[in-house]
């Protein structure tokens, strides 16, 4: 079966420290909406969001046995007919619950809680990051400044989520056969990059084979306007004290710029930008997972610096 699934609209977490998670997501660049000591929503520009609740919130789906803080991945669909069709398909062999807000809830074959809802995505009408390139028409005209320390660098839309799964073959089969996701590329023995039918993005879901005790979320990320926003948002985030985990750099599969940070969600959190688009003509590539296949280049964060003063003394660090 294939359904017009647009991508993840919301990720719901049940956390130990609501205050730290709220501060983290606000500093990351998401807008807090209705946030109290019990949690709230943290929205990108198009309304896609991270939802934070207390770990013991009785309204949350039961956690995975591993205790991963990810409690639900909610996908957006364009219309009620699609929602009804997904409910009918999943209802053939599992419990599907309709919630008071009209969304439906079920579990995938690994036990991850899934939601499906009429999408919250607001259409965005924003400019791409403009670049001036010799031989091409200028994207920034005379006197239009490319960068400043005060410009916004805000997450635009929830891009993708990555799961650690104990049986990647079974997990992939569920998303491909039951929901119509397609594999766009694959790391041999690790897992597939998966794209639902309602988007051209290289992936909205990536699966990684792990031992069962690791099952959960590895990272999530929001799309930024472009590489400058990834670098500038990441730089500000690091300056606030958050710890860089990997990046900045540019992935090979998907071509997306990336910068990953540690977080209080028990997973990494990424900024990304400029992902490849693929349609049905695309033939999935495959490579062993490793440093050479994961990125075209990689940089490391460092403090602002300026070449000044006398040469360093011999032996000085
Ligand atoms: Fe990613």
Describe the structure.
With 317 residues, the chain is an alpha+beta fold. It has one domain: 2,3-Dihydroxybiphenyl 1,2-Dioxygenase, domain 1 (Roll), CATH 3.10.180. It is 16% helix and 33% strand. The chain is built from five helices and 18 strands. The chain has helices spanning 18-28, 80-90, 168-178, 227-239, 291-294; strands spanning 7-15, 31-36, 39-43, 49-54, 70-77, 97-98, 104-107, 113-118, 157-165, 182-188, 191-195, 205-209, 216-223, 244-250, 257-261, 268-273, 285-288, 297-298. Strands 17-10-11-12-9-13-16-15-14-18 form a ten-stranded mixed β-sheet. An eight-stranded mixed β-sheet has the order 2-3-4-1-5-8-7-6. A hairpin with a 6-residue loop joins strand 14 (244-250) and strand 15 (257-261). The longest helix is centred in the last third of the chain and has 13 residues, at 227-239. It is globular and about 70 Å long. The model has no long low-confidence stretch (mean pLDDT 96).
Descriptors:
binds fe (ii) ion; 2,3-Dihydroxybiphenyl 1,2-Dioxygenase, domain 1; 317 residues; VOC_core; Glyas_Bleomycin-R_OHBP_Dase
Itemize the secondary structure elements and their pairings:
Elements: E1 7-15, H1 18-28, E2 31-36, E3 39-43, E4 49-54, E5 70-77, H2 80-90, E6 97-98, E7 104-107, E8 113-118, E9 157-165, H3 168-178, E10 182-188, E11 191-195, E12 205-209, E13 216-223, H4 227-239, E14 244-250, E15 257-261, E16 268-273, E17 285-288, H5 291-294, E18 297-298
Parallel strand pairs: 1-4, 5-8, 9-12, 10-17, 13-16
Antiparallel strand pairs: 1-5, 2-3, 3-4, 6-7, 7-8, 9-13, 10-11, 11-12, 14-15, 14-18, 15-16
The chain binds fe (ii) ion.
Fe (ii) ion (FE2) binds next to β9, β13 and β16.
